[in-house]
Amino acid sequence: MVAILRCTPDEEKFLADFRRPSQFEAGWESVGEREAWKSSHVVLVVTGQARGRPLVEYVGHAKSGRRAGTLRKTIEVTQLHHIVPPVPMERLSDLVHPRHRNAAELSGTLPKRAGEELLDALTTCRADLAGVIARLQEQTGGFRILNRVRELFVDERDATGLAFQLGGFDRSIIAQARFPEENEDRVPVLATLPGHPAHEDHLVFHDAQRFSDWIGSDAEHLAKRVFRKGDQKLFIANVNRLPAEDTLGIDLIYHHVNRDSFILVQYKKMQQMGAGRSEWGYRPDADLDDQLKRMRQVEEVCSRLDQDPPLDYRLFAQPCWIKFCKAEQTAPRGDALIGGMYLAREHVEWLRGQPDLAAGPRGGELFGYHTVPRYFDNTTFTQLVQDGWIGTRGRASEIIRDQIEASLDGSRSLVFAALIGDEMTQAERTRERRAGSAS
User: Fold this and answer.
1) 201 burial level (CB within 10 Å; 0-12, 13-18, 19+)
2) pTM of the model
3) How far apart are the C-alpha atoms of 248 and 411, rounded to whole Å?
4) pLDDT bucket at 140, cuts 50 / 70 / 90
């Protein structure tokens, strides 16, 4: 979140005496209206208010503190960065969408979108502040996505967290992933997590060696890990062959070894559009056409390999899904997954054939929350995969290696995950979740 703090004349004089880095780091304690200040924020510190010419002269971190009377509370302002020369608030107001311009007149916590636009306007005026703001965003639980390296890292982290959840494992470890610095090269998410790489984890069992053979060793960035829960093991690999600027997106392949089943989830990013950029949508392009063609071919092979008669029941026995998710400017907090719409390949193609669905206001194809009437969210999708209601049934291991190669040859990064070991029944998982909630 973003907030605006307007200095009193006394506060301006106090700040003007700051000279040492330690003073800017320590900051000061202000006071504000209790209802206007909640939680922690990136704060724009405004001077010149009393003179009628407000200037953004500092940016820092603000955290609401203790009560200071009936209607007010303290505000701890730290990690200040002095902006020289300061940026006129009027200039920022001119750069944001008209519906958010009133935010430049507010004090305290701003509406989410208005705050994001003000930060964008500030970095437009002063590009040198992008790195400063990114570090402050980390402090408030939302890492700022400034470039393609970080964008892919966020999606890879999400796919890795999704793999944990599909396998019924605790995904909280992804909250400890270390985001790349502003000018840093690509680094696999798994390589930034605490613990040991797979080859240092006494990884001698047959299945994991087979997975490593499927993945190969020619990736530019490769990290493998094995996680354990009781008798179960979850093998996860992050595989990146290309630089960020040449990578089209992220694929997740999840393999349930005991069922010999798999699913493929491909990430597509929705952009902001419409009046006031209030809607999110994805416009199909040639890459989507190519990927749908590939998915159809995969599913034709799976249909030929399907057991006859089947030994297991599925609501949907095909593997290919697309996750349409927002191209947010900040990463989700902690271990949260990116919100999105999961659609099966055949559902996507069906929607494209319906003139009144998945269509924008001018008639063009558009996939978004406001144009797609039904979809799975993170919770529903992962639950159905965990319980074996969706995914291929049998002989998946005969084609997974080809799908790994297809993802990487198609200029995509890959998260591959495989669950090994006997699973709990749905009733056992329900009891485990309830026990966790009770504790």
Assistant:
1) middle
2) 0.69
3) 6
4) low
